[in-house]
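Late entry, written up from scratch paper. The run itself happened at the end of the previous shift, but nothing got recorded in the book at the time, so transcribing now.
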Amino acid sequence: MAQSVVVLLWGAVFLVIMAAERMVPWLKAIHDNVSLGILFAGMILLGICITVFSTHRSVLKYLKMKLDDLY
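Output as recorded:
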């Protein structure tokens, strides 16, 4: 499920970039595949970091709770 969402988001970002290049022709001059690769890698890393951080925070929250508070 998560992989399909990532692929859809990559597609959406790519389509926005293509639409922007059609509307503003000088953007094609600064189009760089390396920059797009860095952008997509950054999106993946940011998603992983957010997931790890929120999971860690949730697990610690529930581990610190008393048993009576859980039910």
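The chain has a mean pLDDT of 84.
(Scratch paper discarded after transcription.)
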